[in-house]
Amino acid sequence: MISIAERHKYIKEQLAKNGFIRVQDIADQLNVTGATIRKDLRILESQNVLFRTHGSATPVKPQIMDLSVKEKITKNVEQKRIIAKAANKLIVENDAVILGSGSTVTAFASILEPIGLLNVVTPSLGIAILLSDKDNIDIGILGGSLIKKSLSVRNSYSEEGLKNISCSKLFIGVDGIDLESGFTCATFEEAHLTNVMMQAATKTIVLADSTKFGKRGFGKIGNIDDIDAIITDPGIPKSLMKKIEDLGVQIIIAE
Question: Does the domain formed by 69-253 have CATH 3.40.50.1360?
C-alpha cells in the first residue's frame, strides 16, 4: 500500500503540474478512498502547502488583493503583451466593442488597431486616454463615480450608458478563474458592472494570464460557461484547459 509520504508527494506534484486537484481524481489514481485524500489535504493545508475547497484544492490560498492598475500593469508584462496581440486579431472591419478596465485590457488598448472605423465603449478613463491618440476610433466613456485604484467609473450612471448600445464583443480582465467559483474580480461593484456590459455584447472574451487560474476574487462575475472565450498564455495547466473547453469555452493560447 502507498505510504502517507508517497501520497503527499504525489499530491504536491499534481498541484504543481495542474494548478489544482480534485479529491476523487487523486483517490482513483492512488486507489484509496476519498476520505483518505481529504485527510491528506487537511494535513497539507495545515502546513500551508495548499488551500482546500469543496472536493478540490489549489496550491495556495486563492483569494486575491485589490491592487491598483498601476501596480498590476508592472506584473507579467510579457504575458499581457502577447495576450493583447492575440486579442487584436479578433477586431474586424467597422467593429463595435466594449473594453472593461484592468491592466491586461489596458495593454490591449495600447496596441489596438482598428480596421475601418472602430467604436469603443469603456468605463476606463485610462483606456479612453490611450485610444484618444489613435485614428479611426470613436470612444464612448461611461459615466459614474471614479474608482481611483482602477481609474474607471461605476454605479447606476455607468449601467444607464449601456442600455442603448449593442456591441459585437466585450473584452474584460479578471482577477481569478476557478472551476468552482467561475470568473471573479476584486469587488462586487465591478462584478455587477461587468455583468451589465456582458448583456450589451454578443460575445464575452476574457483576457487573463495563466497566473489567474485557480485564483478567486470577492466579486463573482459569472460561471465559466457564461463566457465565450479566454485568451491566455502557454502557462495554463493543460488538464484545466481541457476541463474549461469541455464547458464550451474557446481557449486561445497567445504566443
Answer: yes
